[in-house]
């Protein structure tokens, strides 16, 4: 995981490129790149030539010694700056072993021969589909004076695009690298690529049949209407696919760990990781791991439900467990830094990012550079408590598809930027491309909290719990969903509400549309975050980059139709779902 800045179309506008202007732009790009050096504290590199400048800040996880970037092809004509991990790089490397002279062991270098294979056809969608991983990259072909920019299917890796007043085009791993230099800034859309030899607009490369409910409605079911398992192979497919995803994502030449909140998702990832952690996956598990003890990390206020549950899970799994306590004041003191790093004023994201930001700092202090996390499970399996109110399978599945399409705005943004603020890479096995296809192709009835004949309601994510019930304690497997910002300690959210009510006066809030004409805040808590954000990122473009959608307990706006009582609510906490959350403890 790293960070990069790319500048293209250097001759745009009224200023033709000459050596003086090139040097000026090179210095500017280096200054932009310096703002995201927290993403890559291990190495800095820059390329300048033709009509492009690429600067890269490296966090060395795979091939720490020779994999510095930008990467350059053997003939010096193709230059690549990439952020992320390509988990199937060995398979792709083998395909091009006789046709391409690899200069490093970097997983990202395989993007160069793939590009060379597909550049004549221009079928870059097929090219990118070959990649299994999390990534954003900018590639410059100096011979053709063309560039290719792309982002992974879900948007696990952040990417932004912008244009300066002369019309030059920029891409960067974080918004802060473009703010102040570009007159217009946008998020680069997930699952898309942009090729300068085409219409210079993002083109969608990622599409799946499961995006339509009709494509999954008749798929085999694991259970019957009584909740009895009748097709165990469906459950086994979930387990096998997730274990494959975790194993693939353990490739690392540096120490790694797992985030363990004590919830179902992180506990599953920790348990499966422990299964493979004693052997080095890079050798097909024929050699012992370089770091054979798996470390797990949890954070919370003293007495929080997450800490107690994480302790139970860690004891059962056998990890070396680290429990990080934070105080309300420490979290409040960190708010400005958190908003600077996560680049959003979204309430849910700020609430959850703050303890994660503090946790990442402790992880880095331990010398850990990569962690696996449980993000994405709730979007795949309908884990948020509001899904209990889904009126039917179609509505349930279509909400999952909407949630998957918005992950890059919320959970993925939080996990990536909170961790990368301290140079810690986060990997998310639930969002492995192949696992997504398995999970989203399941019959939605196997995921729903259906009412059983005995009058009880089946717990959310039932099929995922069944798939892994034998490797975790029962109280973890069947623990009800607890959103991270709730689980670290309820006083955290309660304090934020109280504090922001006091800090933002009624008069200020009444004039919110005058103060913030773009996306006016809906609550005083959002107003408070928005003021900090606007000081750090003052442009209207930066304000528009942040999502602004009504919801309840992390729902989309569309799901508000499921319950009349929600229509006047706008509260992201899971506790907003009265009668469901109350049963958790």
From TrEMBL:
L-glutamine binds at residue 107. Residues 2-199 form the Glutamine amidotransferase type-2 domain. The record marks 375 as: Important for beta-aspartyl-AMP intermediate formation. GO terms for biological process: asparagine biosynthetic process. CDD domains: Asn_synthase_B_C, AsnB. PANTHER family: ASPARAGINE SYNTHETASE, ASPARAGINE SYNTHETASE [GLUTAMINE-HYDROLYZING]. This is asparagine synthase (glutamine-hydrolyzing). Pathway: Amino-acid biosynthesis; L-asparagine biosynthesis; L-asparagine from L-aspartate (L-Gln route): step 1/1. Belongs to the asparagine synthetase family. The active site is at 2 (for gatase activity). ATP binds at residues 259, 299, 373-374. InterPro entries: Asn_synth_AEB, Asn_synthase, Asn_Synthetase, AsnB_N, GATase_2_dom, Ntn_hydrolases_N, Rossmann-like_a/b/a_fold. It catalyses: L-aspartate + L-glutamine + ATP + H2O = L-asparagine + L-glutamate + AMP + diphosphate + H(+). GO terms for molecular function: asparagine synthase (glutamine-hydrolyzing) activity; ATP binding. Keywords: Amino-acid biosynthesis, Asparagine biosynthesis, ATP-binding, Glutamine amidotransferase, Ligase, Nucleotide-binding. Pfam families: Asn_synthase, GATase_7. Its EC number is 6.3.5.4.
């Amino acid at each position: 995981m790293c960070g990069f800045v790319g500048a293209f179309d250097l001759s745009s506008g009224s200023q033709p490129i000459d050596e003086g202007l090139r040097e000026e732009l090179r210095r500017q790009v280096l200054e932009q790149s310096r703002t995201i050096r927290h993403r890559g504290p291990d190495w800095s590199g820059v390329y300048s030539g033709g009509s492009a400048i690429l600067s890269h800040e490296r966090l060395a996880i795979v091939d720490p010694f020779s994999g510095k970037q930008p990467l350059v092809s053997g003939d010096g004509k193709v230059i690549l700056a990439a952020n992320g991990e390509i988990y199937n790089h060995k398979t792709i490397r083998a395909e091009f072993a006789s046709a391409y002279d690899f200069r490093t062991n970097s997983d990202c270098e395989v993007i160069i021969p793939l590009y060379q294979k597909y550049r004549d056809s221009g079928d870059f969608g097929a090219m990118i589909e070959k990649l299994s991983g999390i990534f954003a990259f900018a590639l410059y072909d100096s011979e053709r004076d063309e560039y290719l920019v792309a982002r992974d299917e879900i948007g696990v890796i952040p990417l932004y695009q912008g244009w300066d007043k002369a019309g030059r085009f920029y891409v960067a791993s974080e918004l802060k690298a473009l703010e102040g230099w570009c007159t217009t800034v946008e998020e680069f859309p997930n699952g898309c690529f942009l090729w300068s030899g085409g219409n210079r607009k993002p083109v969608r490369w990622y599409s799946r049949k499961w995006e339509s409910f009709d494509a999954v409605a008749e798929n085999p079911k694991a259970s019957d209407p009584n909740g009895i398992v009748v097709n165990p192979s469906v459950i086994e497919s979930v387990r096998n696919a997730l274990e494959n995803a975790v194993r693939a994502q353990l490739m690392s030449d540096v120490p790694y760990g797992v985030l363990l909140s004590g919830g179902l998702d992180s506990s599953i990832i920790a348990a499966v990781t422990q299964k493979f952690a004693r052997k080095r996956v890079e050798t097909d598990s024929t050699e012992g791991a370089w770091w054979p003890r798996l470390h797990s990390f949890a954070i919370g206020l003293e007495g929080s439900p997450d800490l107690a549950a994480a302790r139970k899970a860690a004891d059962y799994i056998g990890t070396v467990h680290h429990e990080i306590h934070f105080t309300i004041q420490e979290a409040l003191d960190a708010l400005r830094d958190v908003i600077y790093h996560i680049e959003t004023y979204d309430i849910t994201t700020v609430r959850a990012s703050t303890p994660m930001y503090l946790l990442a700092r402790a992880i880095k202090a331990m010398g850990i550079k990569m962690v696996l996390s449980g993000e994405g499970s709730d979007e795949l399996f309908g884990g948020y408590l509001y899904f209990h109110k889904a009126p039917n399978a179609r509505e349930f599945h279509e909400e999952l598809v909407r949630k998957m399409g918005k992950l890059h705005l919320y959970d993925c943004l939080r996990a990536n930027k909170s961790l990368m603020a301290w140079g810690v890479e986060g990997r998310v096995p639930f969002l492995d491309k192949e696992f997504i296809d398995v999970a989203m192709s399941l019959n939605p009835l196997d995921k729903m909290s259906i009412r059983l004949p005995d009058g009880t309601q089946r717990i959310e994510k039932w099929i995922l719990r069944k798939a892994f019930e034998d490797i975790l304690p029962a109280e973890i497997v069947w623990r009800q969903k607890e959103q991270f910002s709730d689980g670290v300690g309820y006083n955290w959210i309660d304090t934020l509400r109280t504090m922001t009510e006091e800090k933002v006066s009624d008069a200020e809030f009444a004039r919110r549309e005058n103060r913030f004409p773009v996306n006016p805040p809906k609550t005083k808590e959002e107003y408070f975050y928005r003021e900090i954000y606007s000081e750090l990122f003052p442009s209207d473009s930066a304000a528009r980059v942040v999502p602004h959608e009504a919801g309840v307990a992390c729902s989309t706006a569309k799901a508000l139709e499921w319950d009349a009582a929600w229509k006047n609510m706008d509260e992201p906490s899971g506790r907003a779902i009265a009668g469901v959350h109350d049963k958790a403890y």
